[in-house]
Amino acid sequence: MSQITHFLAALIGGAVVAGVLLLTGAGGSGETTTVAAGSAVANPQQGALTPREIYKRDAPGVVFITADLQQASSSPFVPEQRGQSTGSGFVIGKGGSIVTNAHVVEGSTSVSVRFGDGKTARARIAGADPSTDLALLLVDPAGLDLKPLRLGSSKGVQVGDPTVAIGNPFGLDRTLTTGVISALQRSIPSLQPGFTINNVIQTDAAINPGNSGGPLIDARGDVIGVNSQIETGGGGGGNVGIGFAVPIDTAKEVIPQLRRGGAVQRAYLGVGTRTIDGALQALNLASPDGALVETVEPGSPAARAGLRGGGDALEVGGEPVRVGGDIIKAIDGKKVTTSDEVSDLIAERRPGDSISLQIIRDGTRIEVTVRLGRRPTF
Fold this sequence. Notes:
Shape: elongated
Strand order of the largest sheet: 4-5-6-9-8-7
CATH architecture of the largest domain: Beta Barrel
CATH topology of the largest domain: Thrombin, subunit H
Radius of gyration: 22 Å
Number of domains: 2
Structural class: mainly beta
Helix content: 10-25%
Number of helices: 5
Number of strands: 25
Order of helices and strands: EEEHEEEHEEEEEEEEEHEEEHEEEEHEEE
């Protein structure tokens, strides 16, 4: 989570500073990113390191990011406001590539990076992706002794695996905290209203304001996530033992696109769905599982294909549920049992792709073809 001073202190879920992303150029290089082979998380037989060893190896590659912010005034009698956002990031290539959170640098007029040896360099934003809260910064490597961190994989991690977080909480640079993976497959809000980041890693390693964009590291010293949000429990914004990291496998997909074009184009269906489970049993729906379509965005690919959302809302367990809409059972032949599976399967496609939806409508199973659009920006 980034530390904000003076202004722009809007929070999502008590964790993330939200706003319109500033994309300032594309840029890039042909540098090579070091990617670890094999399992993402080590046990003692697979060369696990102590936290001291991990810190000695990886802390030099963790950077302190300062973003200067400027907010124009809509009134001639009120001066423009200025402030700073600070956060963390980590080097991934000798050519000057640095990964951080998009919310650390969004709305910035300039960005600077301070390295472990005290040297500071001006950075430019190669691109930022609000859907995953990731950004790629570029610095001129001349005169810098860059220490890239090795990227592992988030696919092999398990609950209980040891984790290390290194970052700059409350401006205290290169602070190490330890913990374990507390849960997997979490969903957290993205910077795009109405969309979430899926498959997120939960950890109890202490993450506080200023840790945003720093690495979550496994026992081999490899990066398995990008620390992004915390749950404050309604408190004052400090750590309560629940932090969230965007999986490094997600970053591996996003970073090359940011390097090439500065933005990530995502497929868009345009439905709001709810998982059909035991909590909805009293509604006597036409299927005991699947994803119930509650809303269809006007003008969306789903609307053009004739998908139907629900009508009047009924209260179930204290929450409103719009009933009467289509039930998605499969996408391109892959069974759908949850709302998250709909999001994940759409995320695997590209804008312009056609997909086949198997749905239940008025008790009858039918097939609908939808040509996916491009996710809108808000």
